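Q: Fold this one first, please.
A: Sequence and structure below.
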Amino acid sequence: MAGSAPSVSTSGPSASYSLKFVIAASSVGTLIEWYDFYLYGSLAVFFSTQFFPRQNPTAALLASLAIFATGFLVRPFGAIFFGRLGDLIGRKFTFLTTLILMGVSTTLVGLAPTYRQVGLLAPLLLVLLRMLQGLALGGEYGGAAIYIAEHSPDNRRGLSTSWVQTTASLGIVMSLLIILAFRLGMGEAEFREYGWRFPFLFSAVLVALSIYIRLRLRESPIFQNLKDSGKSSAKPLAESFGSGKNWRLILIALFGAVAPEGVIWYTGQFYALFFMQTVLKINYVTVYWIIIAAITLATPLFLVFGAWSDRIGRRNIMVAAQILAVITFIPVYMAMQANANNPVILAALVFYQVILVTMVYGPLGAFLVELFPARIRYTSLSLPYHIGNGVFGGLVPLINSSLVIATGNHFAGLLYPIVISAIGIVVSFVYLREPTHHIKIWDEVRGELPAEAV
């Protein structure tokens, strides 16, 4: 039957688990990794007083944001390293490994000494742990998105993979809620002294739970059939990066889809948080609740746009978000400044920005999976995703804040995401002419599948 996927066996010919379990197990692990990764970002303003000299608060804030950015800068290296493992050994092994690495490095952040205790060693250790987090996340997203896609029917791939797309936003919400609970429960003085460590240490419990769930999974059926038939790649790096045709696809994915998605994502969620705290000087509790409310209300739209992309295609939905970002980012932030004392209006303005995030990000996982062949999919997909999302997107808080400080104009930082989004519009219309949602990734192994699985 066209568009179908094989049943999934867990431990024998009679045991099976549903696509819902695959989605849940993959997404929960990815949610925890995003939670781990964004704990630092959620506390970046606070960390500037813990890991750096306090004589120059502006320099300390920029240094804190720079360390936040290092986790993004190393993500492409994690993408290459773990992408290769994913195409050589398998999807399941790789995203189990990244989950463990993320959990260990995040827990160690909770044990890290402060500047007052060890001086310059404190930020150096923080950089090292942040880099380990970035390497881990560089392999996680590709594995989870591919694993779900390679279990899904061709005609539901957008909806299925959009569950993974929700995890990044929900990871922010989860980090903010847990930080808020500790800060309010302990009191500001105690939290500042030692309580900030608890959200990081709590990660160990979450990771252990996720590992237990993921151990019940087996390998992706598409990859397993490639492996069994001897058609998996022996040199995924050479095949991915030694081909001009594949490089063209990587660059189209990067500049037409992922880099614009990255800057829209981090502007609409993280820069909005920084802007309200550092420019509008709004109390952190109010800011946290604004972000939590906006993201929570908008999160179902990831699934809406993912499902919609199965019907009308991925490109047009993503480009529509890019166009809206170019046109509306500056007016939206002007409106935020004009309504700094109105939390309801601020929440509505952040909610609008998160809608753009859901449009550009919801269909993205399926789009990237469809762009590359299964034998080199993990390697090829992960690199443009983590350059676009990690480097272009992850630098948004640092670049935007630096532009604001350099010019004295509170809206100057928005030029960066606007320019990247404009480039995405041009690349998409010029080079993404063919719809990808009609691609049947199961056709790559259809002849190798047992008859009862087709």
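Q: Good. Now the second chain.
A: Here it is, same layout.
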Amino acid sequence: MLWKLPLGPSVITVLGSVLASHAHAQTISHTLVASGFLKPMQVAVTPGDATRLCVVEQRGQIRLVKSGVLQATSFLNIDTLVPDQTYGGMFGIAFHPDYASNGKFYVHHTTGATSAIVIWIAEYTRGKNADVIDPATRRVIFSLASPSTQAFHLGGSLCFGADGLLYIPLGDGGYTGDAGGPQRSQAITGTSALFGKVLRLDVNGDDFPSDPNKNYHIPAGNPFVGVTGEDEIFVRGMRNPFRASFDAGTGVLWLGDVGGTVREEIDTLDPTTDAASNYGWNCAEGLLCTTNTNCNCATGGLRPPVHDYTHTVGLCITGGTVYRGCAMPAFEGHYFFADYQNNKIFTGEVTPANKLTNVVERTAQFSGGTSTITSISAGLDGELYVTNHSTGMVRKIVQSPAPPDANGNGVPDNCEPPANPYDLDADGMVGAADLAIVLNEWGNKGGIGDVDHSGSVDAADITLILGNWS
């Protein structure tokens, strides 16, 4: 997009130099937030209060960290419902968009032995004590029983989109090759067809008042409403989308889909354009066709991943988050992801077309913090938190060396509200660095680059920066 902006060659040259040198000079590191967790799976920040972190433990508890201190009493304890096993447990949490007023949040967990696992999406509601949730407030939203004795690849994320709807990525529920036959990830009819999909539900309604385990409304925009196919399905062709998150800047869902025997992949889903897309499994694994003869991989209109890697690089991807914070300006618009089994962490630059480029392994930079990463999640301020499953730790990703902090108050200058609203980097002048910030955030829905507070970073913000050039 840069070449379409009304900027002279000298400005473009300066911007290119600023951005390139800034990005290449920076690395990442981490700080310890809290430890002592039992198999932590995800971090979520309580809406409206950045000092409260909720940490999901696989065994069935959500622990509360307040102002950096792990609380003795759990935020939610349902360990009597959750099995203590490798492939089952509590995987994820999502707060309702109106949590501040209705106190509702949702968890993804399983019950039962491996041979008879049931996936549950359950709603809980905050009471007078916001630190401890009463398990009796439980209300089942959705449930799905395993269709076979091979109960694996169960997904794990829950994500509310900008449309207020709940997106539920689910794996194929089986083992190597989606062995259920016919392949569940490609099927669109029958209860088992809900596996290997991203489902989309409206938790604010109930189309099934007589069913205690189905308490949701089918959004009218779901692609199989009124035609052949299960109404809950939004897209298909997933193997095990264990971690997913919406980009706060664009509204696009990023998914890390765990591969089979050959490749790991990263997919994107734009809710406004990608309904009914087919992401390929098990006709394709990453960018390669499989040996499945029941589908035509080459001409079947499959949606390719935005990035994949071979099993010489890693064996079990953990999908991450696009960084939209302010304390790591060199990594604005970078997607952070990991490999659970090979203990690695990566970044890649997100392009305006929501592709991934310049992927860099940063494991050595993140020394001591890459052990069995189960999630990379954003806080309210866009800063990123990592959960280490085997070591029971939560860490915060930081930029190294740290951005300037002229007043020494612990808040990077880049995160301080500028005295001059056009001096975005607070260096005392309006210049190329401020213009670079706007260009880095181009198209975002808000952010420091949204100079005119219109709700998006666009040409009007460029005009204001240029009009106030020092």
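Q: Anything worth noting on the second one?
A: The chain has two domains: 2-10+411-467, 28-400.
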